[in-house]
Design goal:
mainly beta, five-stranded antiparallel beta sheet, 11% helix
Amino acid sequence: MVLRAEISNTDDKYLPGMQANVTLPGASEAPLITVPTDAVIRDESGSHVWVQTGKGTFRARMVQLGEASADQVAVVSGLQENDKVVISGAYLLYSEYVLKKGGDPMAGHNH
């Protein structure tokens, strides 16, 4: 996304073409569950994350995504506040599942 804006530069601290991070208020007033974008697996079945279900056990869960930034994405449905989502290694779990089970962990799920 490209955003152009005029800002005061009386001290000459800013140069043309400099990059800036801008935070804008979202449309939602309700608190959102967000996860890092790397935690979300997107495939032909939709979007899913891996959730810890016990010690050393994980299950893929379909999620519906909302607004996203460069490094975070809002989860509109599919997660609850205390779910433990795999943040680092989600693709490894996905690949291991496909190799061992020979299929998509979300096959048959309609979201």
